[in-house]
Amino acid sequence: MATRGFFGRRPSADDAARLPPGQYKTEDFPVLSAGPTPRVQTDTWSFTLKHGPRPLASWDWQAFNALPKTSVMRDIHCVTKWSKFDTKWEGVSIDDLLAAAGVEAPTGFLLAHSFDGYSTNVPLADLVDGKAMVATAYDGRPITADHGGPARLLVPHLYFWKSAKWVNGLQFTERDEPGFWELRGYHIYGDPWREQRFTGD
Amino acid sequence: MPPTRIAWQQATVTAIVPQTPTVKSYILTPSTPFDFVAGQHVDVRLTAPDGYQAERSYSIGSAPGGDTIELVIERLEDGEVSLFFHEVVEVGDAVEIRGPIGGHFNWSPSDAGPILLVGGGSGVVPLMSMLRRRAAASPDTPFALVYSARRWDEVIFRDEVMQRAREEDHFTLALTLTREASPVPDVRSGRIDRMMLADTLMVFGDQLPVLTFVCGATAFVEVATMLLIDLGVPFESIRTERYGGAEAKILGPDVAVPDA
Ligand SMILES: Cc1cc2nc3c(=O)[nH]c(=O)nc-3n(C[C@H](O)[C@H](O)[C@H](O)COP(=O)(O)OP(=O)(O)OC[C@H]3O[C@@H](n4cnc5c(N)ncnc54)[C@H](O)[C@@H]3O)c2cc1C
């Protein structure tokens, strides 16, 4: 049913085609986090790939930055309703990361972990085949702390809370285990095109 | 059993209360009343005749336990949804909402205290729900509110927070105006800074807040949380809600929190 008197500020047809349901286009880059912004220094930074509790591989900042880098340009969609088009990122694709670790994926599910204790679950299939990376640069510059720098996960085809800021590890889990927001009412998978914002959507 | 979806429902606007020249409260009566925890928000959805929809999130300002919810909406001049509320919405209209939403920026009496609230501008809204909840259900829990607004007539819930500070035990208010000198003695002037936060933390004696809730425009939240951490408030005890607006420019540890 239409809302009395509402016509809306309509996006252009081109924009509308790129906007998932309920999203609006913004030119800014809003910030969403559950808490304060941690100041993560690159000299103490590390990234660990695990299977359950068992470490499979680990990199410090220098070693990580020696891995092959990939650049992508993607639209991103935040569950708080804004979408931003054509964002440019550079980082290490999860494909290259797994290859560098020399591991075959032991399970189909992962949890991304962050320096601030945040975690979020993403199925393996949504991380590989060029779909995701650990990003270290945004728009040609190091990622600022408020946007998750020095490194954040980037899974642009899912709602942006899945792109964990201040990421410090990926952990293979036996089953799809809910992370921080997923335990607090947000959707287990988070596909913006199916408007999977909250549990049960 | 699959989890149930938070369904969209019609809510009727049963009252509109001007709060400041640019902020109004909208009292909504949901067709299916729901319980919530102080600090949660709802999503609001507007539909145009051709089916185009706009959605935004708004915090609930009222305390849990009533049949109505209070949304407090600030008018943004180029705002698609906030301007519609201010220009078009009248008592008797219906809008679609769904909620409650949010499982982190929440306070309930079982969390106990002391609790520090830090709000800038309309960021006071979910904090108001917590204050009202405290007064009704847990009046012995120590609370402090550090609250920044631009001008005296732009202080949302001004009379209520000042009255609560006068009448309620264990509640301390530090209110400050960023763009004009305060017309009354116990309201400060200037942006929230390290001193103001340090002074307020002292009302808890040697206890640190068990939880601190910081809400407002993004830049406000960034700087306020940085100052709090600098003052020894544990990182893990700080919960934030960022409403958007201009991006933060972090200048250094001595900066004052930007304009609310
Ligand atoms: C969890 C949550 C709770 C919220 N609770 C409230 C609330 O209780 N009361 C309330 O008034 N708002 C609240 N907001 C913000 C609200 O959802 C909308 O973003 C806001 O009303 C602007 O929407 P709009 O359609 O009017 O403006 P838009 O058309 O979306 O934007 C218009 C312009 O305003 C800018 N802008 C967007 N947000 C802000 C802001 N906060 N400050 C300054 N400029 C901004 C945009 O960048 C843009 O340039 C909340 C946001 C979140 C995420």
From TrEMBL, chain A:
Oxidoreductase molybdopterin-binding domain mapped to chain residues: 35-181
Top-level taxonomic group: Bacteria
Gene3D superfamilies according to UniProt: Oxidoreductase, molybdopterin-binding domain
Matching Pfam families: Oxidored_molyb
SUPFAM superfamilies tied to this protein: Oxidoreductase molybdopterin-binding domain
Region (Disordered): 1-28
Protein name listed in UniProt: Oxidoreductase molybdopterin binding domain-containing protein
Organism per entry: Bauldia litoralis
Automatic annotation (TrEMBL), chain B:
Boundaries of every FAD-binding FR-type domain copy: 6-107
Transmembrane segments: none
InterPro entries from the UniProt entry: Cbr1-like_FAD-bd_dom, FAD-bd_FR_type, Flavoprot_Pyr_Nucl_cyt_Rdtase, FNR_nucleotide-bd, MRET, OxRdtase_FAD/NAD-bd, Riboflavin_synthase-like_b-brl
Pfam family, one: FAD_binding_6
Cofactor: [2Fe-2S] cluster
SUPFAM superfamilies: Ferredoxin reductase-like, C-terminal NADP-linked domain (SSF52343), Riboflavin synthase domain-like (SSF63380)
GO MF annotations, alphabetized: oxidoreductase activity
Top-level taxon of the source organism: Bacteria
Protein name: Ferredoxin-NADP reductase
Species whose genome carries this gene: Bauldia litoralis
